[in-house]
Amino acid sequence: MFMRFIMRKTKILTVQMQKPELNILDCLQLIDETVRSLERIRHNESELNDQIDASVEFAKTLVSNPEEEFARKSNKRSSRRLENNPDTLAIMSLKTNYRKCMIEVLDSLIREYRDNIKSCLKKIKPLAVILQPPLTKPNFEQVEKVTELFPPSISVDCMSLYAELEIFVNFVNETEKECKTVHDAGNSAFKNKEIFPNVYKCYKLLFTAPVSVADIERSFSKMKIVKNYLRSTIKCERLEELIVLSTEKDLTDTIHLDVVLKSWAARKNRKLRIKFK
User: Fold this and answer.
1) Is residue 277 part of a domain?
2) Which parts of the chain sit beneath pLDDT 50?
3) pTM (2 d.p.)
4) Shared domain check, 75 and 152
5) Rounded to an integer, what distance in angstroms lies between the CA atom of residue 186 and that of residue 23?
């Protein structure tokens, strides 16, 4: 019963994490707020009882009566050794039993979320310290750790980034009075990317860091739909293009096919000229 509550919480968090405008710092803050909410419910007996009552009512709508099922299971004859010992004899009600189960699940979920937050923060902490408002004068060691986060294909000089960050902090604090979020600071870096190219690369790295792998996993499921048994000989280039069109369906639905056909037809005259003798 209580799995419905856990699944609803997890689904809400998953939907929020898949927003395109969400960056990894806001995502960690979102997970932390969810964990605090779960911890509040875990330590509040009345909230646990409310969730059990709601789950019971929901189960009844599915033609299932948890109270009768629990009464039937609890009426099973227990061990005679326990029955003869009054110190070990205990009567467990429906709410007591399901509170125990909910606490076990919540403890496991909270611990897993906390471990993920710690491991992720350990990796991106330099970016969070340097790029998250309010912006302050950076530490050289932190800047050096930020440069280590870039892939080998993107080279960022540590001294140049340190000098740019010092100027960028003063520039934002003097000109951008309403810079309160990471997106505000990132927009300022984007507008002045010719002046602060390395700072812009840092914000670009922050915003493009994958928050969730749901989109990647969804592309694999789309590939099974596109490349079926009837399209087993499709080439890689065409397969990639069809997968992109399928995964980005919300964008492709806005395209007018008549305009595409006219543009395609105007590129080359595909009519064959037949000469009759």
Assistant:
1) no
2) 82
3) 0.55
4) no
5) 11
